Amino acid sequence: MFSNELDKLLILNIGDLDEGARRFELLQIRVADEIDKLVQDWATRQGWRSAHSWREEEDAAVAPHHWMSGDSWQAWFGLEYRSGDTGEWSDGNDYFWLTKLCAEGRGGMGFRFCQDQFPKTAWKKFIQTRAIGFNDTRFVFDDEPSLFLPIRVDKETLAKGAEEEKFEEALRPLNDALDYIHSIIDRFESLLTTMRNQQAS
User: Fold this and answer.
1) What would you report as the CA-atom Rg of the chain, rounded to the nearest whole angstrom?
2) Which of 5, 17, 101, 157 lies at 20 to 30 Å from 72 by C-alpha?
3) Where in the sequence is the domain holding 73, given as residue range(s)?
4) Number of domains making up the chain
């Protein structure tokens, strides 16, 4: 279909499209609330710190307490968009973040390992040489460069959750990803220790 024909169809269905966009925004708010609760509850169970304000600031992250320095996060795993996604639809990215969470458009989401303890340039050089050590994990080395754990929520399961107003099963991939992070946290501890020793030498 040519773009001008598509534009015509959009205009002819403008009322339905407007209502659909409004309802989808409301759905995103509901799912965001569930994500915030999931992250907070998971961190509480593990005795970790969490940021759980995806709804307001698109900020959801977890970290062991000893990775904190007062209120400052030295290192953490944050829920983020896939590498290269600016978050702006005008740059060719998906319009809704929920589209990315379901990997049904151009983008995707996952948990990224981040740090604010070491200089950025030094860290980039370091992680480029150490990322190979994570080839046997579910983390991928992306273009940030960073270690990124992709997540995909099944749209059929999410649709059922919306219908029943129960999102626990649909968002299970997020909980499973956090459990996986916890299971290999020693690998990241070792990574930070190695970098710390290099900086001290």
Assistant:
1) 19
2) 101
3) 3-200
4) 1
